[in-house]
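Title: Request for sanity check on DNA polymerase V prediction

Description:
We are preparing a figure and want to confirm that the structure record we downloaded matches what your pipeline produces today. Could someone re-run it with the sequence below and paste the raw structure tokens into this thread? We only need the token string, no images.
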Amino acid sequence: MSNRGGKRENAGRPRGQGKFGEPTTTMRIPESQTATIKSFLEAFQRKRANGDRDTSVVNIEENELLIPEISAQPTLLPLFATKVAAGFPSPADDHVEKRLDVSEFLIDHAASTFFVTIKGDSMIDVGLLPDDKVVVDRSRTPGMGDIVLAVVDREFTIKILDYGANKMPRLMPANSSGAYRPIYIRPDMQFEIFGVVIGSFRRFK
């Protein structure tokens, strides 16, 4: 009987000896999102090595890079025509303007969209609070005044894209306390707009 073939005992890399120092698992992801997930994992390693700087970065330590899953059967919920400052509109059918699928409302291009979690308070003046989920679309062309997910010197940050006095791009915080300064993009910096923030959502309970 041949003793070749099959799995050898203690073969392969020891558990916990990989790049992240812990056991790994196999997962299936959309092919279009491969580069996105690799970039976030690289950022995660750098944050472990250098410490966590609060720049409203993506909270990837808690696995909050989320790929939207679009159901073949959309969930259509009532959208009431009545607009109220507080309270709840009448549930009568004649007040229902239409049925709304939340995924359709939030997502324009599913193959290029992902969700990330806000960390820090540098964007609170535009309604982005800690633990909010933001919707990022990589297919959008960023314009001045857009809220973007940018990579600056290999660190992720969410800021408003703007031009400074010298027409050089800069990333502006949205916190009137003055605790955060603009990030001016110099020619010697590594800089990339990773995607445009097109929306956000949060839960209260």
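Thanks, this matches our download. Residues 46 and 52 are 9 Å apart (CA to CA).
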